[in-house]
Design a protein that fits this description.
The chain is elongated, with a radius of gyration of 25 Å. It is 48% helix and 16% strand. The protein folds into two domains: 213 residues, Spore Coat Polysaccharide Biosynthesis Protein SpsA, Chain A (Alpha-Beta Complex); 71 residues. β1, α1 and β2 form a beta-alpha-beta unit. By secondary structure, the chain is an alpha/beta fold. The structure holds uridine-5'-diphosphate (UDP) and magnesium ion. Uridine-5'-diphosphate binds next to β1 and α3. Magnesium ion (MG) binds next to loops.
């Protein structure tokens, strides 16, 4: 497509303690940029932006070094660790470029999908989702929980692209729209489909982490998963009402039955089971209901404070 003007692309890579992978990631991304530039598809100002999410290792020094070696490498340093979603948002909202592509630092997102994402952009898509064709490099646990979770989200009416994480291309105007979403409890893959625009999908095979360890321990993953539910669906709140309704109906029926036994028969014995069992059951149910309400309450609490979602210490 030689007639199309070269695109100014910026690859956004959040990094948390990624010293083990950075040199190789940078090498591969720059090679990809070089290839696309030779083909005349991207312009000479195209770049890679590493977002250092408050790493405790040499990640930032490495980014500075890489930037000295190659002018196409840029960096944003957050003042402390704010989590993957916030680091990604910092990159998306502050980096320049006609087109931004976000991807993980560990090369799990196959960079060969990037030219295909550009194809879709040239065909008019504003947002191009990288979707995993296979998940066989994930652990069984991750695969199973992910499938159950995405199914649950769909049941809750949350519009998400299945098997898509945060490997995606976004046009400048879709990024401008993203800026207007002010929420603090970030779950980007829930927000992006709300932007609208023309979207496309590019499939890729998820690779194994190139080096180092996952920076997403189970607890962090759980926190993200809960954000996906509580920030995008109020169905759990409706559940409480439905549960409450069913239970009141059931207890009314049991009440009538008990009255019948008491007055119409001679079977009435002072029973503890009928008192104790509903007590535990109802206690558990009340706690569950309180927990669900707490999930929303805590998010309303943090949203109303409108604290900054990221703080940039410096950029290069
Ligand atoms: N990451 C981040 N901040 C964090 C945790 C992770 O910026 O607090 C980045 C990490 O450096 C990587 C991406 O998020 O580029 C995905 O993390 P990881 O590969 O460890 O997650 P996994 O692939 O195991 O789900
Ligand atoms: Mg990874």
């Amino acid at each position: 497509m030689a007639s199309i003007q070269p695109i100014n692309i910026n690859l956004i890579v959040p990094c948390y303690n990624e010293e083990a992978v950075l040199p190789e990631t940078s090498r591969q991304l720059l090679a990809m940029l070089g290839k696309l530039q030779v083909q005349g598809r991207i312009d000479g100002e195209s770049r890679v932006t590493f977002v250092d999410d408050g790493s405790r290792d040499r990640t930032w020094q490495m980014i500075e070094e890489l930037s000295r070696q190659d002018a196409r490498v840029h960096g944003i340093k957050l003042s402390r660790n704010q989590g993957h979603q916030n680091a990604l948002l910092a990159g998306l909202l502050s980096a320049r470029g006609d087109v931004l592509v976000s991807l993980d630092a560990d090369l799990q997102d196959d960079i060969d999908a990037i030219p295909r994402m550009l194809d879709e952009y040239e065909r008019g898509a504003d947002i191009v989702y990288g979707v995993r064709a296979r998940r066989d490099t994930d652990t069984v646990f991750k695969r199973w929980t992910a499938r159950a979770y995405y199914g649950l989200l769909r049941k809750f009416g949350v519009d998400i692209v299945p098997d898509h994480a945060d490997f995606r291309l976004m046009s400048r105007r879709s990024l401008d729209a993203l800026r207007d979403f002010r929420e603090v409890n970030l779950f980007l893959r829930g927000i992006i489909p709300m932007l609208g625009f023309r979207t496309a999908i590019v499939t890729y095979d998820r690779l194994s982490r190139f080096a180092g360890e996952s920076k997403y321990p189970v607890l962090k993953m759980l926190a993200l998963a809960l954000n996906g539910i509580f920030s995008f669906s109020t169905v759990p709140l409706q559940w409480i009402t439905v549960f409450g309704f069913i239970l009141s109906a059931a207890s009314m029926a049991i009440g009538i039955w008990a009255l019948f036994i008491r007055f119409a028969t001679t079977l009435a014995i002072p029973g503890w089971a009928s008192t104790v069992i509903p007590m535990y059951f109802l206690g558990g149910l009340q706690l569950l209901a309180l927990g669900i309400i707490g999930g929303y309450l805590s998010r309303i609490y943090s949203e109303t404070k409108q604290r900054p979602r990221f703080i940039i210490e410096k950029s290069i």
